[in-house]
Structures are given as structure tokens and as C-alpha cells.
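Assemble and predict.
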Amino acid sequence: MSTSTPQAPRRNKNSDADLIAEDLAIEFDDRNGEPVDSWDDSPFTQQTPVVQPVDQKNICMVVDDASMTYRVRSGTDKHESSGRVSRVIKRITGSGWAEVPALSNLSFIVSRGESVGVIGTNGSGKSTLMKLLTGKVRPTSGEVYATSTPVMLGVNAALVKEISGRENIRLGCLAMGLSPEQTAAKYDQIVEISGLSDALEMPLKTYSSGMSSRLQFAIATSVDPDILLIDEALNTGDAQFRQRTKERLDEVRANAGAVFLVSHSLGTIKQMCTRVIWIEQGEMLADGDPQWVCSQYEEYTSHKSNGRKRAAQVVYERTRLQLDPVKIDFTSESRPKKAGSGRSR
Amino acid sequence: MAAPVLERADDAPEPGEARRVAQLDGSNLIRVGARPGLFRYIREIWSFRHFLYYDSHSRVSSANSYDSLGRVWMILNPILFGTAYFFVFGVLLQTGRGVDNFLGYLIIGVFTFRFFTTAVSGGANAIAGNQRVVQAFNFPRACLVISTTVRELFSSIPMFFVMALLVLTVGDTQLGDAADMPISLTWHWLLFFPCIALALMVMLGWSLALARAVNAHNDVKHLISFGTRILFYTSAVFFGTERWTNAGQDWLVTVMNLNPLFCVLDIIRHAWIYDGFADPARWIVLGSWAVGSVVVGFLIFWHGEESYGKER
């Protein structure tokens, strides 16, 4: 049951708050099971939220209550549709929609100068968060705001396979909005970082996956973005390339206003980040000091991998109690609407 | 058996139950991924013009790179089709009866039709088939569709040369009882250029609208191949126009006259093999299609700008 209705109200048992609410005859909104007055949810333990004004000069990125539910075409029966008619249609056409919840109600603010690590087990929603942050996908609800369009450094995005490495470099630079002169100026640097000077005339389809990710990395880091997202880009390539990668990344990071880093390597995260966000099952579980969050995460994953579910849950709950969620409130209609430019500088 | 979602306890503090509210002024911020206004969008496309040009240019040279004959296929393909159509329609079914210079007529029909439909179906696939580039960069997505159309034009230049050469050499071959109308190179041939320019605008408009549709619903691809077929049979590619008039249905003639591809073919045929002007109505119809398609197609595409990065 829990898999078929992923967004079912979580408050379904007779929890204390419910019983109290019944006693006090507080009206509940039937649609989501939340009390109408949400601040009065657990009246005996909580106070009115504290309002903290944030200086706009320091803000780099604001994620306001972002949720993401993928609606993907799927021919499998795993995600059963709810309606009877849609089930029949699905059986006839052999293709239907499956709703996959990926993130729910994420809110946080990133200030200028912060390096934010994002951790979480596989399938927890890290990549989805990155897609929302770069604006490739619009959240199903909530919004993402930033001072400029963030740039993602990933190794997954391949370029055009049929054309040569040299042409891909030019194409990539132009696709980032550089002028032909800027492209020519960056060309040598890109070739140097990629270390592919011998293979530049070959079409990209002849490259090994390591080679094309090196090229992709070199092209992506040729600009100095203000907000930078790095997705697992550090652990590719051989030792020689890794050294070059690290140097270039340090340079780019030093120039960037804010950095997001998604990695499974906790060592890298602890070393590079000033703050860590842990996402688990699409929800934020922790947000804070890298040492503390990483140690919780390590404990959690070690329990999980050893099959100690109860112990893992204890860590989960314990971590979650420490979470101090934030709500975003824009002063007097200053909620941003305007669009950013796709050009990088 | 344990429940799959084990960690979620009912009495934990609810997520989203914020205990603090951050109040901020968002006037310096942008909404990430937001669609720019129409004029801003056009300016953005202009600023990516070098990308657009380079993208179309570099991919022309790489098209057919998987075939041993490579670029020769761009010319070989319509010649093979033309030969096949000539035997089926010209010799077996005799659809060319009453058409002067039927061979030239057929060559212009087949080559131009091919140019039109490959460009439109390529443009329709420009977003869905380029998801990697879309995911990696933030340029205005219309650039991809425009560059596909431009690329189609670039790669068709040798094909048009072959078409002109064939029309000049074998286009006026005597077939059956048709009148002898020798074809020669006159200034009328230049009418080809404004005509193709208008055709490009129609193609771009259709590509823009279809690119959004294909990206949203892959099923549209099936409809495109169906539509291509219909267009093939209704644009007088391989038969004379009297067949429409003789059918005795006035509305059929009206429909045909409003078909932009028929207008393109008719204009080029009159200019090249009949050495004269087509009916001015053709230019009016084609011109309206061109302007209308570009405006409507662009608006449709721009309106869906935020949806193109989504996985399907």
C-alpha cells in the first residue's frame, strides 16, 4: 500500500498530536491530513517560528519548498495506476505513466562563499536536486532562485559523438555563450587540461569513456561560473589526470561564489565543503557541519550495509531530530520572476 | 517481512514544519530555468548565433559519417528514389500523361519534396534527439531547431546542384505524346532562391512547433511519418495538376492550391522547365504560410521553453 500511494499523508496512525487534536476538536483539512493552522500542529511542544531576516547581499541560492515527482512513461506494472480505466488503457497500449516521487519539500539558503556537499545513498534524490538547481527541470512545486544560472560540471553529459574532439571543444564553448574570440582564447587551456592533444582530430565516438569525460570536464571548466555544481566529476580518469583535475577545480572553486559538490567520497566532501546536506528518500535529513553529518551518514550506511535496519533507523531518527528546517519568506512581493541568461562569462 | 520504508516514523517532527522563517528580499535573484520574455529570448538567440552557425556547419560535414559512401548518399538517395518513381509512376501508371517535360517535373518534385520533409522531420527531432546537449548547456533551445533547419539547407546545396544539372540535361526528354519544350538556363531560374527562402521559413515554423510536440509526446513521430506520406500524395510530386481539376471536386483544387509544398514545386517548375512565372497566387499563399508558420511556430516553441530539459 505504501508504494502505490507514495504521497499518502504520513500522519495516519493515532499519534499523540492527533489524539490531542481530537480532544481539542481542532479542524483538520481532509486533503492532506494537516491541521488547518499548521503552526498549531503540536501546540504543547512548539512555538511560533522565529523570523530571521537574511541579508540579500550574502545570498547566492534559495531553494523554496521544492518538490519533484517524475512522471515517466513506463511499460512495467510496478507502479500501478490508480484508476480502473487508466489500468485498462495501460494494458492495451503497453505503456503508461508512472509517478516517481524524487524530492519533497526541500528548503535551504546558500550564502556566498559556501561550499555545500550533498550526500545520500543511491536513489535518494541527489541527482534530481542537481537538475533542479541548474534549472534543467522545473520542480513540481516550489521554486529555485539564484543570483545567476548555476553551471553543472558533470561527466555524464557527452557531446556530439560524430564530430571530432577539436570541433566539440569549439561547439561546447559556443554553447556556453562564449564568443568565437573567447573560444579561441580558451582553446589551448582546454586542450591542456583534457590532455588529449593526440586524439583531437578523431571523432568523439572513437574516444573511450574516460577520454570523453576528460574532454567534457575540460570544456565545462573553461568558464568561471558564479555558482558551480560538481557531480562526481572528481573521481574520473587516471592518476595523472586526477591531479590536473584537482588543480583546475581548486581554481574554479576559488573564483566561484558558491559550490555544490555531489560525491560518494566522504573524504572529498569533508576536505572541500563548509556545509553538508544529507538527502535520504527525497527528504532533507541533515544540514550542517561536514564532520558531524558525515559521521552520522557513515554510521547509517554501515548499519544499512550490514542489514541492521533497526540500528539504521535509530541513526536516521536521531539525525532528523537535529534538523532545523527553514521556511522561505520573501519580503513584500520581492519573489523573483525574471529569467537568467544562458550565457557564461 | 519488514515494510519497505522502514525509517519513516509517525511521531517524528514533520518535514516542512519549519521552526524558523528566513525573510529575504529576492529582488537580486532570478528564478533558475525561467523562460525569458519573448524579446529577451530573441536577443538570447542572437547572442548564440555563433553556436547556431557552428553547430549546423560542423554537423553537415559529419552527416552520413557512418556510411562508406558518406556524403554521396545525399545525392544518390534522391536519384535512386527518382528512378524508382519514374518507372512506377511515369512508365507503369503513366501519371505523367499530359505533363510536358515530365522527367524534369518529376526530378524537381522528388528532390524538393525530399529536402522539405527531411528538414521538417529532422527539426522535429532536434530537441528529443539532442537531450545530451540540452542537459549539458543552457542556451535557448530554439537554437537547436534553427540550426537543424540551417544544416539541412547547407547539406542540400550539392543536392540542388545535381537537381539543376539533371533538369538541364535530361529534363526535356521526349516521353510519349508530350509537346517538345526544350529547357534552357534563363534568368527565371533565379526565382528558385526566393522560393526556397520562403520554403525554409515554412519548414522552420513547422519544425519549431513539431519539436515541442515530439518532445512532449513521442507518439507525434508516428503522425509525422503519416503526414509526410499524405503530403507526398497531395503535393503533385509525381502527377500533373489536371488530375485534381479533372476529379470534378472544387474543394480538392482549393486544398491543393493552399498547400505550401505544392506552391514551392509549382513555382520552381514554372521557372525551370516552363521558363515563366507561376500563378501569383502561389507566391501569396507561400508567403503567408512562411510568415504565419514562423510566427506561430516560434511562439509555440518559446512557450514550452522550460519543458525541454525534462526526461521522458
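Residues 38-307 of chain B form one domain.
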